[in-house]
Amino acid sequence: MEAESEPYIRLATLRLLHQVVADLNTARSFADTVQTVADGVIAGLGYEFSAVNLVRPDGDLVVAAVGGDPGAEALMAGRVGSRDAWERRLSLGDRWGALHFIPYSEGWVLDDDDVPQWHTPGPAPSVPDGWHPMDRLFAPMYSGGGSGGELIGVISVDRPRNGRRPGAWGREALQMYAFHAATAIGNARLRANMQRALLRLEREQQALRASEESFRQAFEYAPSGMAIAEMGGDQHGRLLRANDALCRLLGRPASALRRTSFSDLVHREDIGTLLRTSAEGGRSELRLARRDGSHVWVSLRNSVVADAADGPRFLLTHVEDIEERKQNELQLAHRASHDSLTGLPNSAELRTRLGSRLCDNPRRPGASGRGESGPGESGFGESGFGADAAGAGGLSRGYDEFEGTGVFDEPGVFGGPGAFDRPGGAIPYEPHVHAIAPREDDDIDDGHKGLAVLFCDLDGFKSINDRFGHHAGDAVLIEVARRLAAGVREGDTVARLGGDEFVVLADGLGRADAKDLAIRLRNAITPPIRVDGRAVRVGGSFGIGWASCGMTAEEVLQSADQRMYIEKRSRAKDRRRAG
Prior knowledge:
The chain has helices spanning 11-23, 30-45, 70-76, 83-89, 104-107, 168-203, 208-220, 244-250, 254-257, 262-265, 271-277, 323-337, 347-356, 461-468, 470-486, 511-525, 553-570; strands at residues 47-55, 61-67, 80-81, 94-96, 99-102, 136-142, 151-160, 225-230, 239-242, 283-289, 295-306, 313-321, 450-459, 493-498, 501-509, 529-531, 534-536, 539-546. By secondary structure, it is an alpha+beta fold. The strands form four sheets. A seven-stranded antiparallel sheet has the order 3-2-1-7-6-5-4. Strand 10 and strand 11 form a beta hairpin. Residues 1-6 and 364-430 have low confidence and may be disordered.
């Protein structure tokens, strides 16, 4: 089988890393931001000690924050290391991407320099990749986030909780964290400067002109996008000014932006998020349209600015490009829900999709419409999940028709107890469409359509693994996955359950349709597959189960699995695969 190239990342770990990155921009002051950077290494990256060293105006680096060890904080905080000593450190050891790792075997030459350091005595590691007490790992931070910018500081880390040197994912996580920490520190400095400018604006008219110039420079030359918009009145939200960074980010000239508002630029799915962000101090993550029609993920943060005492108020909007972080999050989430070899949804994602169609309540006797679907009325439609369901018993009316009527705010609206016990009869719309299996009589197809669950086990796959090795087996699994995915409709689900087992979810099928689909997929699998110049063949045994409300996802899969084994035993061994 396939070898995992990276450790399995639990969703809880991803959420924790996402949270500490998000916390970087929520600190109220510059000092709080720097301390949050140090604490985030401890909370989200699995180290027991961290120190944030920031570049001073004279070029030397001062220990601005320490996390994880109060004793080390008392001894190190505020101490200064020379720039020459730091540059020497960053030139030694191994380069792990943007990180610098100095093993204990090379780091002894740094013991006497003037850089503040803290080591906890301990035994040497007993494994090759173990962390030695004298190992050193540094994550430089640069202005603009990339290594091409100016050095603004260095994050030092020590004592991984697992006692080992970080692997590929741990290094990538620390490198990504240093990128966002550099941006957060730069933004915190910018916000501090802007707050001081705003205070000067309120004190006296004489300082107003100087403050305006300071603000103009901070606004125009900010590394991230900024805009000023009208607040209140008929022109609420119309952009008055936009800096160069925002113009570059959106690919639009400042003159064009002044004729628009963020509501004109936001992705239609994020309109609600933007409206909630318009409040004072609002902050959100949403997508804005570029000039070429593409969209970019940004972090949008609003502050209210008074033009003068009792004068009109404006919205100062800070727009930070978070496209790279969002793409990383999507990639990590995709890895957690999809099989790394075939790219198909994995077992957990399969159970999630199947479980979303099931509820605890089986079909009510005599129920109609939403509880008893007819042909094409399963809620998924002929093209699968979320497709057309406008039949007599399907979702013929959308959510918008009942939005704001209170239909979705009342007990029992989702088909639970009380949904049909209200005065006046049933509610006008029920979001959940019950999954109902067709009749058990195989000789009769009553035209009822349901959610078919096809359980596929490959025949002859083990012999390919044994004869030609796992590399050939992996190639066969990849090709089988491709053929299965090509043989279903858009909206159907093909998932890899594990090993040589696959599951297909196909909605809107009758019993005859499901049998035809199983035959087509079996015929798609049997043609020879070329692996390293040789042709190999596998077959497939299919069991057809049916999802029905009142069952769990596990029960549905077990039913299909049992039917697959019945079907496998019913065929002679030499007929299970082509060769």
